[in-house]
Design brief:
The complex is a heterodimer of chains A (235) and B (109). Chain A is mainly α and 235 residues long. Helices cover 74% and strands 0% of the residues of chain A. The chains are: A mainly alpha (235), B mainly alpha (109).
């Protein structure tokens, strides 16, 4: 138990650099959603109830185009289907903690928190479920509240972010910093390559479904190569 | 935008609730039960199966440049990969990648 604060603060330190991404991303959503005609309660409703930048932007874009309500929901939820994969991937690590804690942390299961946590669990298999939970909450702490505040600032203060700065690219940079350390075995590298090629090949599918097709193929590739490698080692 | 207040809140609450249920799904249902080895073997690759595919279009066809390859963003991506391998430290990589991005933006951008 005594290591729990340590795991929390380790998570906090590892989550802190995401601040660089979350703040501009949230602020841009606040600005764009306000300019699209949403009031501040509705803008905050998105960022507090949904906390998923990509899905929020898709919903907003389709609302601007006056798509039917059900189509807006279907398209933006499709973008978030990957969260179910994150949920499955976290279950072996966090499944043993009590149901209400699982219920609470599911709310903050965003890309950055998931990716940083799974990288840590991968590198420290000796962590107990409670230590893993403390780390997860630690990563979420500097990510989720700034997301609310940045959205509010964007909505309330309007467009004070200088135009033309390449802040859109903060997201790929943080994800690269999280993915590259995971590429330490042949199955991991193969899965990543299938993911990249798959998303390009299936780019024609609507609602971002190409990403899900590519992800399933990449998981099967990684699993199959791992199975063959271990079969060869232990005949 | 021509939505009523009710329609807007339907979208917000529907998307919020749906996203929450997707996040809770497996973590909530499976709980502490043991999963078969073949399922675990697939799940081990979730992160490397989704993240690279998610950022590939953002790197190769950034919307900010109208979907055409951009030397600033491509250069920053390559520098970030190199920094990650070299420093083995995510924080340094993120700050270094952002520094290269802005350096390229203000020189060749």
């Amino acid at each position: 138990m005594t290591t729990l604060p340590r795991d929390f603060w380790q998570g906090f330190r590892d989550g802190a650099p995401f601040f660089l991404v979350i703040v501009p991303f949230g602020a841009v959503f606040g600005v764009v959603a306000t300019e699209a005609g949403l009031n501040i309660a509705q803008v905050m409703g998105f960022s507090v109830l949904v906390i998923a930048g990509a899905a929020q932007f898709v919903a907003l874009q389709m609302m601007v185009e006056n798509a039917p309500v059900l189509i807006v929901l279907a398209a933006s939820l499709a973008v978030n289907l990957r969260m179910a994969m994150y949920s499955a991937s976290l279950a072996p690590h966090l499944g043993q903690i009590s149901w209400w804690k699982r219920g609470l942390i599911s709310y903050v299961m965003v890309d950055q928190v998931y990716a940083a946590s799974i990288l840590r669990y991968d590198q420290r298999p000796e962590m107990t479920p409670t230590q893993k939970l403390a780390y997860f909450v630690g990563v979420a702490a500097p990510v989720v509240p700034p997301w609310y505040l940045a959205t509010w600032a964007g909505a309330a203060l309007g467009t004070t972010i200088p135009a033309g700065l390449p802040i859109d690219f903060a997201v790929p940079i943080t994800f690269l910093a999280l993915i590259v350390p995971l590429l330490r075995t042949l199955p991991h590298v193969a899965a990543a390559l299938v993911s990249i090629l798959g998303v390009l090949v299936f780019a024609f599918l609507p609602f971002n479904l190409g990403l899900l097709v590519a992800a399933v193929m990449a998981m099967m590739t990684g699993a199959e190569i791992e199975r063959r490698l271990s079969a060869r080692r232990a005949p | 935008m021509s939505f009523t207040t009710t329609q807007i809140w339907t979208i917000i609450i529907g998307l919020g609730l749906g996203s929450y249920l997707l996040r809770l799904s497996f973590l909530g249902l499976i709980g502490g039960r043991d999963l078969p080895e073949w399922v675990l073997r697939h799940l081990r690759y979730t992160a490397v199966a989704i993240m690279p595919g998610m950022i590939t279009p953002l790197i190769l066809f950034p919307q900010a440049t109208g979907g055409t390859l951009d030397p600033v963003r491509l250069g920053a991506a390559l520098a970030t990969i190199a920094l990650s391998i070299w420093t083995k430290n995510a924080t340094l990589t993120i700050f270094g990648g952002a520094a290269v991005l802005f350096a390229l933006h203000f020189t060749i951008g």
